[in-house]
TrEMBL record:
PANTHER family: THIOREDOXIN DOMAIN-CONTAINING PROTEIN 9. This is Thioredoxin domain-containing protein 9. It comes from the Eukaryota. Significantly diminishes the chaperonin TCP1 complex ATPase activity, thus negatively impacts protein folding, including that of actin or tubulin. The keyword Phosphoprotein applies. It is found in: Cytoplasm, Cytoskeleton, Microtubule organizing center, Centrosome; Midbody; Nucleus. Forms ternary complexes with the chaperonin TCP1 complex, spanning the cylindrical chaperonin cavity and contacting at least 2 subunits. One of its GO terms (cellular component) is midbody.
């Protein structure tokens, strides 16, 4: 037991030392930045301020442009024709192919509503799979719900059912956000190497892309037990 206690103490010391080192580096960096600012003359400070203002202005204009194209809210589009128009005018689009009778589509709706407000850089749409047979066949969508992730007008990736989300109906919004981050369809600020569900051992950390070859026919398989 003594040996175990000693190991814990050593580990604690190492960790404390790591934290002190990190704090020191951060403090040194801040000191250097402060010194740089102190040494700037008024003209340089003014130029720095102008650059920051320009960047803020540009970001604000970009946000307004996104909002004018229907970003910032999770919307239903009525037809296949609308889908083509919507993906043409936005760089990043997430489209949920749903069906009214599938309970899991409602779960997906709840999370997408939150993410649409948070990630204004991406357009979030939903389309009734039964009203869009041509698109479903073309994109080989067979499991409902499926998210088609469209970048620059091309479908790059799919989130099929809840397989990539920990295989549970109780997945968090953060888990879906992480998965969309893996596809680079949203600006993800977290660590992609650290999935939100990793701490739950029964869930793996890998996600699968849709294997197009394995999908045949037009019938939808509902990824839900209650169907």
């Amino acid at each position: 037991k003594m040996a175990a206690d000693t190991s814990v103490e050593i580990l604690q010391k190492v960790l404390e030392n790591e934290i002190l080192q990190t704090t020191k580096v951060v403090e040194e960096h801040l000191d250097a930045e402060m010194q740089k600012l102190d040494q700037m003359d008024e003209d340089e400070l003014e130029r720095l301020k102008q650059r920051r203002l320009e960047a803020l202005k540009k970001a604000q204009q970009q946000k307004q442009e996104w909002l004018s194209k229907g970003h910032g809210e999770y919307r239903e589009i009525p037809s296949e024709r609308d889908f083509f128009q919507e993906v043409k005018e936005s760089k990043n689009v997430v489209c949920h192919f749903y069906r009214d009778t599938t309970f899991r589509c409602q779960i997906m709706d709840k999370h997408l509503t939150v993410l649409a407000k948070k990630h204004v850089e991406t357009k979030f749409l939903k389309l009734n799979a039964e009203k869009s047979p041509f698109l479903c066949e073309r994109l080989r969508i067979k499991v409902i719900p499926t998210l088609a992730l469209v970048k620059d007008g091309k479908t790059q990736d799919y989130v099929v059912g809840f397989t990539d989300l920990g295989n549970t109906d109780d997945f968090t919004t953060e888990t879906l956000e992480w998965r969309l981050g893996c596809a680079d369809i949203i600006n993800y600020s977290g660590n992609l190497m650290d999935p939100p569900f990793q701490s739950q051992k029964k869930f793996g950390t890998s996600f699968t892309k849709l294997d197009k070859k394995t999908i045949r026919g037009k019938k939808y398989d509902s990824d839900s037990d209650d169907d």
